[in-house]
Specification:
alpha/beta; Rossmann fold; six-stranded mixed β-sheet; five-stranded parallel β-sheet; 17% strand; binds pyridoxal-5'-phosphate; EC 4.2.3.1; Thr_synth_N_sf; Threonine_Synthase; TrpB-like_PALP_sf; amino-acid biosynthesis
Length: 437
């Protein structure tokens, strides 16, 4: 697999380079030069395969020249060691639960795969790989747990003090080993700015092998295609053929992977991009004008993104043809009020507790169905996180009914360990230079 930059189609890098660089120097995004098709024979019988088998088939179609078969198989099986079940709500509505991994969010797929790919490419005796991550909540937990115990790597996570939920904080601060957490007295943007400054600092760059783990890394995108194929396999077993996927979207990495899966041959009838008030993409699909805005805070805070970083990739996949994208991807936006009403409706109608991001994807399936009453496609909305990560939005009755997964019970008995720093770069730099503490 060779990759180019969306800003320079003549650039060629290997998969390994793309993984460690994350982003080309020209600030474009890496894209595969050729998007291979899955074998027809495989797709025709996909219902016979398990999630790890499907994941391996996709990974090997893309990466067989990069990682030898046996190694790739072991890597995929280690990364995808949890399920992504499809839960039926009514005759033609299903929720695809992507939160059964260690951090209880879909980002586990990307983070676990990427960490193992990086570890695979690291050679013995090389300088420790230092992963710096800023998180508003979910990314940090997935990356921390993805890299936890992975040899020759160290993770430093910056989170805004007091601005992540309890479960999210525990996932960041109770790891020990090769994972360090820092509570920054500031906002997520302050955390992000510190990480960016570190990457630009000559002294730090000379001393450490710094890498980011953000959602634009191609090794995070690829494994997110796995669950789309697996959902299709589950639906095929139930006799469905036409699928409508509704995806709660922030940086558009999740739906970007769905569209990559489509390009690889996955039959999808319709994609729906569901956003909160941060509606840069819905506005673009309506008006043709792509105008980013500063993000606004919502209950679905993992989607509070005003400038979705993966959108360029989606444009690139479809040769920047807005008409084609408009046909394949319908977009809907919802306010906080509508989100709360959506959570309540899902609970009242289906006795199901959905996190705010998931509720937005549900609302989008309804909006789509209202506009397209003759569409017979089965509606599948993606659930990107477990409800227990966002307790503040639920009524007391719902809160009492949220079943805490085993992962959370264990967390509550662990010791929290983290440093506290201000938002000035000097303090953060000193922390990094001082080494283990
Ligand atoms: C990250 C995240 C999203 C948004 O996914 P993108 O790939 O950035 O569009 C949605 N929901 C949850 C719970 C998340 O953690």
């Amino acid at each position: 697999m060779k990759l180019y930059s969306t800003n320079n189609k003549d650039l060629r890098v290997s998969f390994q380079e793309a993984v460690f660089n994350s982003m080309p120097l020209d600030k474009g995004l890496y894209m595969p030069l050729n998007i291979p098709q899955l074998e027809k024979e495989f797709l025709d019988h996909i219902e016979k395969y398990s999630l790890p088998e499907i994941a391996y088939q996709i990974a090997s179609t893309l990466l067989k020249d990069e990682i030898p078969t046996a190694d790739l198989k072991a890597l995929v099986e280690d990364a995808v060691n949890f399920d992504a079940p499809l839960v039926k709500l009514d005759e033609d509505t299903f929720v695809l639960e992507l939160f059964h991994g260690p951090s209880l969010a879909f980002k586990d797929f990307g983070a676990r795969f990427m960490s193992r790919v990086m570890a695979y490419f690291l050679k013995d005796g090389e300088l420790l790989l230092d992963v710096l991550v800023a998180t508003s909540g979910d990314t940090g937990g997935a990356v921390a747990l993805g890299f936890l115990g992975v040899p020759n790597t160290r993770v430093t996570i910056l989170f805004p003090k007091g601005k992540v939920s309890e479960v999210q904080r525990l996932q960041l601060t109770t790891n020990g080993k090769n994972v360090r957490a820092i509570a920054i007295d500031g906002t997520f943007d302050d955390c992000q700015a510190l990480v960016k400054q570190a990457f630009a600092d000559e002294e730090l760059k000379a001393k450490f092998r710094l890498t980011s783990a953000n959602s634009i890394n191609i090794a995070r995108l690829i494994p997110q295609t796995f669950y789309y194929f697996n959902a299709y396999a589950q639906l095929k077993r139930k006799g469905f053929k036409e699928v409508v996927f509704s995806v709660p979207s922030g940086n558009f990495g999740n739906i970007g992977a769905g569209l990559l899966a489509y390009k690889m041959g996955l039959p999808v009838h319709q994609f729906i991009a569901a956003t909160n008030a941060n509606d840069t993409v819905p506005r673009f699909l309506e008006s043709g004008i792509y105008e980013t805005k500063p993000s606004v805070q919502t209950y679905a805070n993992a989607m509070d993104v005003g400038a979705p970083s993966n959108w360029v990739r989606i444009m690139d996949l479809f040769n920047t043809d807005r008409k084609v994208i408009q046909e394949l991807v319908k977009a809907y936006r919802f306010t906080d009020e509508e989100t709360l009403a959506g959570i309540k409706e899902i609970f009242d109608k289906f006795n199901y507790i959905a996190c705010p991001h998931t509720a937005i994807a549900y609302l989008a399936t309804k909006a789509y169905a209202e506009k397209n009453p003759t569409d017979k496609g089965v509606k599948v909305f993606l659930s990107t996180a477990h409800a227990c990560k966002f307790p503040e939005v639920f009524s007391a009755e719902m809160q009492s009914k949220i079943e805490l997964p085993a992962q959370v019970e264990t967390l509550k008995n662990k010791v929290e360990l983290y440093s506290e720093l201000g938002k000035d770069f000097e303090g953060f730099k000193e922390y990094l230079l001082m080494g283990d503490q």
